[in-house]
Amino acid sequence: MSDEAPEGGYKDATAASCSQWGFVSASNEEMERLVASETFARELVARGITADPDGGIELHGAVDVLLELLAEP
Fold first, then answer.
1. Distance, CA of 29 to CA of 34 (rounded, Å)
2. pTM (predicted TM-score)
3. Does 35 map to a domain?
4. 5 belongs to a structural domain
């Protein structure tokens, strides 16, 4: 996640994302707590989201998990 738009060639997915999720806001501290939480770790495991065994750190699908957890009442 970033506040900076990438260099050309990328589709602006803002409108599509906002129409799916609405607007979700969280402070850096809230995000740090959520990413370190057991709930987030359990959800990743339940969905089969794991780090690349070759040492990569990308967790494809993790942003959707974060959004769902942040949007919960």
1. 9
2. 0.62
3. yes
4. no
User: Could you read off the pLDDT of 28-47 as tens digits, one per residue?
Assistant: 899 899 999 999 999 999 99
At 45, list the tokens: 């495991």
> What tokens does 40 get?
């987030």
Task: With respect to residue 47, please indicate whether it lies within any of the assigned structural domains.
Answer: yes
Do the beta carbons of residue 41 and residue 70 sit within 8 Å?
A: no
Number of domains in the chain: 1
Give the number of other CB atoms < 10 A from CB of residue 6: 8
Q: Which two tokens stand for residue 49?
A: 């989201």
Cα gap 37→31, rounded to integer Å: 10
What range defines the domain where residue 39 resides? 26-71
CA-based radius of gyration for the chain: 14
Distance separating alpha carbons of residues 46 and 39, to the nearest angstrom: 10
